[in-house]
Amino acid sequence: xxxxxxxxxxxIAFPAxxxxxxxxxxxxxxxxxxxxxxxxxxxxxxxxxxxMAAAKQAFNEVLDATPAEVQLGIRTxxxxxxxxxxxxxxxxxxxxxxxxxxxxxxxxxxxxxxxPTGWTPIGPALLKAAGDLxxxxxxxRIVLITDGEDTCAPLDPCEVAREIAARGIGMTIDTLGLVPxxxxxxxxxxxxEATGGTYTSVEHTxxxxxxxxxxxxxxxxxxxxxxxxxxxxxxxxAPALKSGxxxxxxxxxxxxxxxVDVKPGQELRSSVSVxxxxxxxxxxxxxxxxxxTQGREIVRGEATGNxxxxxxxxGLRYPKAESDSDDAPPEGVPPAETVCLQVTNSFSxxxxxxxxxxxxxxxxxxxxxxxxxxxxxxxxxLGRGWWLLGVLVxxxxxxxxxxxxxxxxxxxxxxxx
Amino acid sequence: xxxxxxxxxxLLALGPAAxxxxxxxxxxxxxxxxxxxxxxxxxSFRTATEIEQGQQATASGSTGDYLYWSFPADAxxxxxxxxxxxxxxxxxxxxxxxxxxDGLRRRQACQYGAQTRTAAQGTAAVDLACTLRTVxxxxxxxxxxxxxxxxxxxxxxxxxxxxxxxxxxxxxxxxDSKDIGGSAAVDGSLAKPLVPGIAVxxxxxxxxxxxxxxxxxxxxxPTDGWASGWWSDRWVWTAIGxxxxxxxxxxxxxxxxxxxxxxxxxxxx
Lengths: 417, 269
Known about the structure:
The complex is a heterodimer of chains A (417) and B (269). Chain A has helices at 2-12, 51-65, 86-89, 104-112, 122-132, 157-167, 182-194, 205-220, 386-416; strands spanning 29-36, 44-46, 49-50, 70-77, 93-100, 140-146, 171-177, 199-201, 227-228, 240-241, 244-250, 255-262, 266-275, 283-291, 297-306, 311-319, 337-345, 359-369. With 417 residues, chain A is an alpha/beta fold. Chain A folds into 2 domains: 29-220, Rossmann fold (3-Layer(aba) Sandwich), CATH 3.40.50.410; 226-325 and 333-369, Jelly Rolls (Sandwich), CATH 2.60.120. In chain A, the strands form 4 sheets. In chain A, strands 5-4-1-6-7-8 form a 6-stranded mixed β-sheet, sandwiched between helices. In chain A, helix 2 (51-65) packs antiparallel against helix 4, helix 5 packs parallel to helix 6 and helix 6 packs parallel to helix 7. Chain B has one domain (19-198, 217-236): Jelly Rolls (Sandwich), CATH 2.60.120. Chain B is α+β, with helices and mostly antiparallel strands. In chain B, the strands form 2 sheets. In chain B, strands 1, 3, 5, 6, 8 and 10 form a 6-stranded mixed β-sheet that branches. In chain B, 19% of the residues lie in helices and 28% in strands. Chain B has helices at 2-18, 198-207, 234-257, and strands at 49-50, 56-62, 67-73, 77-86, 94-101, 107-108, 110-112, 116-119, 125-132, 149-159, 168-179. At the A-B interface, helix 1, helix 7, strand 8, helix 8 and strand 13 of A face strand 2, strand 10, helix 2 and helix 3 of B.
């Protein structure tokens, strides 16, 4: 009966949680295609044509297929400076077509003018591309298409990518390599992993078109944009969170505290994912604890893992019982309990890998109406199975028998009286 | 005597009426191999592609990608996730794995099934499977039992050579479930299924009359809605048990009365 009531109540009672992390209606997806126009793109090894020709053909098809709701821009790297000066060559990145509502013919004309020229400054190009995508609420995606690793050494594009991810919210870099080469594989997959993107090695024009189309479509899918927050080392000054999706950064060995108010009769649900955006040692874990303001642990979620991974995640539930009517304050609004959420992780960066900025952390908070607690193991305490039937039949039979004898005996006694 | 006769007659009439319901109480998920099966996969919990149970979802990706799907599972179901990965023509040995996470992103154990499998060099495809524990309607907050709500599937390669990174692969996944029925019917229920973002979603629904394409973390729901949680075939078992007990009681009573009318009583009395 309790469960039935709870089921009924859930239909009526909406949680009074506020709406942080709620998406806004006018979020447009932005995509910046970053194309390598370095000298090596002249090489004829994709379906008999040059890499450049393949890229151009793919771009034309992608521009035709781009959904209207996506704002698309094109940035080149190594398109303008043909010389040998490394300093100048490594600054050579230009915006070919600004990130805006797409004018297909204009964009196509711009792409047609490209011819393979200079260096491969991936890092600087990514930084600029991140600048191109600044502003707006929607998802942001950089698609990097290149045929060679970065030639502007001290600036590691991997670290650039990590910094971009740490700076902007929801910025993803997907990489496409035009040459099956181990070193390129390594660098491009490192860039992709740093931002939660994907790396694809492409050997045919068709594959290139399909992949870029897929990535642009992916950007068009509406996703919830997380709200940036910054947890603290103690619960006392931790940010107060409402239902929603949040991101933060957490270095290994750090702990992050957040506060959530839970009223009696509400249930707190929270999950946390810590992403491995760099090379990490193969054993790792994450711990999410809900503690009271006095530091008593209420419930915890923990996860450990081993081997290659993108994230490690865990979650917890904390249903707060309805307060008893005796100790409820007279005004009728029971006070909310402040629950501290503590997140720690045990990732350790592989040797030689920078530990700052911290690992990306994603936190979901949901405060919903609370469930009834269970009064029995079985549903409503009901029985099931042949043993139950056997026992009931036996008991019924015995009861009938005894009743019969009793009534015979009673009749006999009555007659004799 | 009159009363017991009437009572037993009523119970006898009720018995068969209740019996057919015992066969299979909760509706099993409808396998809808529709043309609308998703052809892409997400790359994180946040972007996971939503699929229905019984749908064969496909996706093309690259070796090294983490592919995510999500599906709804309700109380009393025991979901099985199956995945097939078509590998490129040439590749070194690779180990693939599927992981299933619940709505709180807690990893769920597989009871059985080849969750991890190594494809030897040059193998064309690898098949993976994972059967979860039965989804319970309720569990204590300190337990990590599977609960009704969203389930995430993550498909990825665990170890690979650098040369194999980024090679095109084709994956297909499918989630089905077996109806365990009343034997798994526990008491209690969740006020809301474990669907991430459900607090935010219901709030915005309330607020602006469902503004068309607002993104939510998970908008997943079984085709016929979440089970309300009060029905299980335990009702039928218990009811039949009650009927049988009553009949047995009548039988036991009748035994003590002997057969027919007592000889002393004159006919027509």
